[in-house]
Design brief:
Blueprint (H helix, E strand, L loop, with lengths): L5 E4 L9 H14 L6 H5 L6 H12 L5 H19 L11 H10 L3 E5 L5 H8 L7 E3 L12 H10 L6 E5 L2 H9 L3 E5 L10 E3 L7 H5 L2
Parallel strand pairs: 1-2, 1-4, 2-3, 4-5, 5-6
Amino acid sequence: MNSIKACIFDLDGVIVDTAVYHYKAWKRLANSLGFDFTEEQNEKLKGVSRVRSLELILQWGGITKTAAEQEVLATEKNTWYVEMINHMKPDEILPGAKEFVQSCRDAGIKTALGSASKNSMMILEKIGIVDLFDAIIDGNKVSKAKPDPEVFLKGAEAVGVAPADCVVFEDAIAGIQAAIAGGMKAVGIGSPEVLTEANLVISGLDKMSIEKLDEL
């Protein structure tokens, strides 16, 4: 009998991939300041907060800004990012994601979203899958960043399932660590060489099944 009673999903890199929009917005900001921003540099910003990302970009561009000026720039970047994700469409859902979340629901397993993004609800509405989640915990409902388990613990609480009976799907090391810190199982989306602490690593939710949950 399956002991997993709830699946909690990170959003970016698991359900959708908004990294391209972050990259375009940061690149636009860098260009407006008179320097370029590369895809290689963008890779170094994975899982890094907006404030820290801006600090690194300014550093790479050799530019110094006051804290107040940095706040203005970070807000500007976010405005551009939100404008872009506002045009997202259902075909931007990553392969197998919608199908696997639906199969969890069909099997009587609770589903929750656990994302640091404050734009989670808007993205889910744009891609048309809000109703696939029993609970949505996003950056507006948490104060601590991963690897703190707050977002996943709140997700478990919202669907009324004990942490030990939950499995988290994550693409970042900090997210895997947050799941483990919360006493949950963790499935990594990405590379086994990178997500070494996960109970299982797959390339995407198109490679996941209810049967594989039984093996965790």
